[in-house]
Known about the structure:
Elements: E1 3-8, H1 17-28, E2 40-44, E3 60-67, H2 72-90, E4 97-104, E5 108-109, E6 112-113
Parallel strand pairs: 1-2, 3-4
Antiparallel strand pairs: 1-3, 5-6
Helix pairs in contact: 1-2
Amino acid sequence: MPYFEVQTSTRIPVEKRPALRHELARIIELIPGKSESWVMVHLEDGADMSFAGDGETPAAMIVLKTFGELEGAQYDMLTRELCASMSERLGVPPDRLYVVYEPITHWGWNGGNF
Length: 114
């Protein structure tokens, strides 16, 4: 049940959104037991963001919610992959991107809970 929320000051052209969603699914699939069939992605582009007082240089914030806690090394790998990917795809320098991880213990879906 991974859920990505991506906020960025850059614009994401409509035609590039499917590839970005697929890329996030590819990254989460690096974690055993996680698959694209459960990934939900929320993209918000053109956000009014500043980082270190600079509102002109691209910036981004990614929140990743997962069902249950991941291992420390998995968080490190995800951060590396997300920073590299967002730099390449959105033009956001890795030092202007935060990644927040939120493990969830109760997750509802389809009228029930996991």
